[in-house]
From TrEMBL:
This is Cobalamin synthesis protein P47K. It comes from Paenibacillus algicola. SMART domains: CobW_C. It catalyses: GTP + H2O = GDP + phosphate + H(+). It comes from the Bacteria. Residues 263-378 form the CobW C-terminal domain.
Length: 398
């Protein structure tokens, strides 16, 4: 007897990617080459008028009787329309008449919360999509022609009138980074608009940001549908850890330089705090070769607070991440963690878990110059012995 378990859950592919990257073009191409699959399509548009839905209705060749196009407008499926997405997908899956669900997210949508919708049980609505559906593939589409312009832009979505709501303070580069760092397949579209050399450079940089995804290059979305349908690629834990900076941080052994694809990355680790003013001066003269960096920073003047450092393109941020475990009293540690408080691998008797640990990803990185200039921003021996509170600190209070 064949004991192989048949997975009868309906597979789902989600397309994300910044505005105008080519999601609808790809979707229509895939629909026109769907090889008999009965497909339900969900198209999400931030505005009231769902233009993409019209384009798919006109260009996707969906059967009016056997297939379905669901429009989700006036919001984003990763936030305001999340509940509606749950309900729509549940309805489609329960209908039992489709072989596949294809979702096109809005250009300003983040893929991670959409993926979570398929993997977590929604207690409030009592919907567990993981019983009905199988998230097959998270796809991010990148515009080869516009990528660098957007990635290097200091603009926020609000400045471009593209925000999801009044409290949406995201910058374009953060959105692009979130989209690229969370996917199984990365489609570089509009390759007709760049030279071979430019494309190679872009591919290298994207490979550094996202080392796990399959990268496909195309023009006008002319991909083989098999590359994004029934791939079996999605795995939540893997996707959550697929960003280049996480991979580098988790590596047990740091291979000195990965010259593969011309990209290199390294981790800068120091158990000496930074002088805040010198660190800010260093950040102001940002090394152009660095595409992405992220990690934790130990600042002398904020000795109790671990600080997250995140850079993508021209955007650089220092934000509080929480207290160092070492800054807590024994009673506080007990209250937070019980008898066994976590000791990170970087723990030492003098400073506990305080550490600076930064991942740098870039093209043709001058690693030694970066390390030397960062070292010059650490406290000197003399400063280590002085009063840290008196050091110049231009950062705002957290
Ligand atoms: N030159 C060129 N143009 C393309 C390519 N792919 C799509 N386009 C054009 O780019 C524009 C945007 O494409 P869409 O497929 O609508 O992009 P989208 O990501 O769905 O856009 P939004 O829904 O606004 O986020 C359209 O005018 C397409 O015809 C391509 O590979 N090369």
């Amino acid at each position: 007897m064949n004991s192989k378990k048949v997975d009868d859950r309906i597979p789902v592919t989600v397309l994300s990617g910044y505005l105008g990257a080519g999601k609808t073009t790809i979707l229509n191409h895939v629909l026109n080459n769907r090889d008999g699959l009965k497909v339900a399509v969900i198209v999400n548009d931030l505005s009231e008028v769902n233009i993409d839905a019209d384009l798919i209705r006109d260009g996707g060749g969906l059967s009016r009787t056997e297939e379905k196009l669901v429009e989700m407008s006036n919001g984003c499926i990763c936030c305001t329309l999340r509940d509606d997405l749950l309900q729509e997908v549940e309805k489609l899956a329960k209908a039992g008449s489709f072989d596949y669900i294809l979702i096109e997210s809005t250009g300003i949508g983040e893929p991670l919360p959409v993926a979570q919708t398929f993997t977590y049980v929604d207690e409030e609505q009592d919907i567990d999509l993981s019983k009905l559906t199988r998230l097959d593939c998270m796809v991010t589409v990148v515009d080869a022609h516009h990528f660098w312009q957007d990635f290097n832009s200091p603009e926020s979505l609000q400045q471009r009138n593209q925000e999801a709501g009044e409290d949406d303070t995201r910058h374009v580069v953060h959105l692009l980074t979130d989209q690229v760092e969370f996917c199984d397949v990365l489609i570089i579209n509009k390759c007709d608009m760049v030279s071979t050399e430019e494309l190679e450079k872009l591919k290298n940089a994207l490979r550094g940001l996202q080392p796990s995804a399959k990268i496909i290059t195309t023009s006008y979305g002319q991909i083989d549908p098999k590359q994004i349908l029934n791939t079996g690629l999605f795995d939540f834990d893997e996707a959550s850890q697929s960003a280049g900076w996480i991979k580098e941080l988790l590596k047990e052994e740091h291979t000195p330089e990965t010259e593969e694809y011309g990209i290199s990355s390294f981790v800068y680790t120091r158990k000496v705090p930074f002088h805040p003013e010198r660190l800010l001066n260093w950040m102001a003269k940002w090394p152009k070769s660095v595409v992405r960096s992220k990690g934790l920073v130990w600042l002398a003047t904020r000795n109790n607070t671990a600080i997250t450092f995140s850079q993508a393109g021209v955007s650089r941020q220092l934000t509080p991440a929480g207290l160092w475990v070492a800054s807590l009293s024994e009673e506080e540690r007990y209250a937070y963690f019980g008898a066994d408080y976590p000791k990170s691998p970087d723990w030492d008797d003098e400073w506990g878990d305080r550490v600076t640990k930064l991942v740098f990803i870039g093209i043709e990185l001058d690693k030694e110059a970066i390390i030397d200039s960062l070292d010059a921003a650490l406290l000197t021996q003399e400063e280590m012995e002085g009063n840290w509170r008196e050091l110049a600190d231009p950062l705002p209070a957290f």
